[in-house]
Write a structure and sequence with these properties.
Blueprint lengths: L25 E2 L14 H4 L64 H5 L7 E8 L2 E6 L7 E2 L11 E5 L12 E7 L4 H11 L8 H12 L9 E2 L6 E4 L8 E9 L2 E9 L10 H9 L3 E3 L2 E3 L4 H7 L7 E11 L5 E12 L2 E4 H9 L9 H21 L9 E6 L5 E7 L3 H24 L5 E3 L5 H13 L7 H4 L8 H19 L3 H10 L5 E3 L23 H13 L11 H40 L3 H4 L3 E9 L2 E6 L5 E6 L7 E4 L5 E4 L5 E3 L3 E10 L4 E9 L1
Parallel strand pairs: 7-14, 8-15
Antiparallel strand pairs: 1-23, 2-3, 2-5, 3-4, 5-6, 9-10, 10-13, 11-12, 13-14, 16-17, 18-19, 20-21, 20-26, 21-22, 23-24, 24-25, 26-27
Length: 705
Amino acid sequence: MSGGRRPGPRGSGGGRGKRPPGGKGKRAAGGRGRGPSGPRSDDERGRGSAGRGSRAGGRDGDGRRDGGATDGGGTGRGARGRAPDRGAGAPPGGRGAASRPGAPDLPRDVWRDHAPSGRRPVVGLVRRRGRLLVAEPLFGRGELVVVERGGGVREGRIGVFVPPRRGGRRNAGHRLVREVGRPDVARDVLEALLLDRGLPRRVARSVAAEAEGVAQAPPAVDVARRDLRDTPTFTIDPASARDFDDAISAERVADDVVRIHVHVADVSAFVRPGGALDGDARWRGTSVYVPGTVEPMLPERLSNGACSLVPGEDRLAVSVAFEVDGAGAVRRASVERTLIRSDARLEYDQVDEIFAGTERATDPWATPLALARQAAAALQRRRDAGRLALEVESQEPRFVLDEEGHVTGVAVERSSESHRLIEHLMVAANAEVARLLERAGAPALHRVHEAPDPGRVGRLAAQLRVLGLPAPTWSATDGQPPEGEAPAAVAELSRLVADHVRRHGRGAAGYAPLVLRALQQARYLPDARGHAGLALEHYCHFTSPIRRYPDLVDHRAVLALVGGGEAAFAGSRSQLEELATWCSATEREAMDVERHADRIAAAFLLERELLASGGVARAGARLAGEVTGVASAGAFVRFGDDGAHEGLLPLRELGDDWWELDELGVRLVGSRSGATVAIGDPIDVRIERLEPARGRVTLALARRR
């Protein structure tokens, strides 16, 4: 739905008035504005490749969906690289061609990798143009294409259309190969997004057949499993979780010492190197989660079935055992193959209620949960005492879809004690596995987050100072931290931001991304170079092999090391480097798709809220918002309950002035008036235009507060 006048097109110029001497800004009044009317890019947002998570990350420190706060920097995409060598059991594809004109290269694209050259389909909306039916690309910019009539083509529907065959009849149109649905149904639009990004939305027959076979009878592994089925065990996950990678057991071994078992699904027992399952999982690299659905790395027969640690079922696991003392020191780590049975599937909110005393824990998992809480608290105290780990608070939206595919609500998930419990235990398990691998020199994939550049840390301090936040003394003298002190300096700045947000109750959505952009981008490498965001010397991803291929690689590596019945990585050093590059790229692509999907879901929810409260008339209502970013296009404003919505306030709406982006990228400054619009400013807006299928919200200024 829409209201008010239509915003200018992408890339249209600024105002036509005379530019002030030396001015480089864009005039707001009299012109059509500048830039897109919808979601900003990561560079415009001031976000890195993460932007989600809790203190220094989420479930396992810097995982994508449940964390990533330490994976900042860059544009969120990075170089694609080529697919790992086929001889190393690589995925199909890797032809190196860009997937769409003007779009970044995708690391994986089923259309590019399997469709004939020049025959990439168009995912578009069917419209009538005179006597012709055309498909208008639903996402991004692109030319309209004429479509063939018949074959189920219906006006007003989203479809996937393939170009005419070469050598076919003249003037043949694009042919419908799949009707996706309606543009007013969120689930259909999200499905179209996944197809547009080249995700298969299907499982190859050979892969499905292998998955079915191993689910019924996993390949034999020549090693005895330790039977832990009588050990009380539980999982803690979001209410919406579909697959369960990890479970926890805990027991007291001394007054202040707790032994923790982190049980992780033994995916390596089902997915054998060189098979169809392994090749497909490599090509995918990671699962992609969007509201209401998932593009899984593994077929659902495994991801939601045989591998998932559901309660009351015997499951194959790889268990990492370690002890945590009262000072938070971790010792006596070991890894072995096990057989477990989860006693309970707990949810974050439920565990928080138990910790608050409003719900009762029950046997057999009550005591292990209390001991796990004790161990996590000790690990938290040790992290706080070190003062080198980042503190970045961010929010995770969880959208709710009804049976018809409409978005009906959203819950903004914030870090709580239950989240931190799981995060600390998963981080400890990952770190101990990485330590074992590094000490043995085993070929593996390490999760690397290198120390930030001092110049970028100095820029962050300057940005925060301009925005009125406290800054350390070194920022006012040398302008950047002392040599070798950049990690400690950015950690200090993250704490200053967190303290400011807690005191003032605003700014988290705008300030935290500035911290992230001061960081290097986390990635996978064959070498252990440390993890600056977590202040750890060794780190890898191990605890989510159902949804991340690097975790599966490291399962095989550590099991080979401890005599667990697996073989070490058989490829060359260059092949391992290529695999690391590939997995880093698929992760970034998945994050980009997930962010786009969240914007679409939020726009559909906003449309529903407007219609429920008065429709178009309601669209002109004043909405309290907060500036979360600025760019040459205008200001980005978050508004609504829990800040669930965000839109672009174009320059033309800011008043009759020439607006320039300041050199630090945190304020828009009026050249004549000196007025500013800065990150963190409260601002009242109204909705000017809403395009749910594109995830775009264009705002107009209501009144500055």
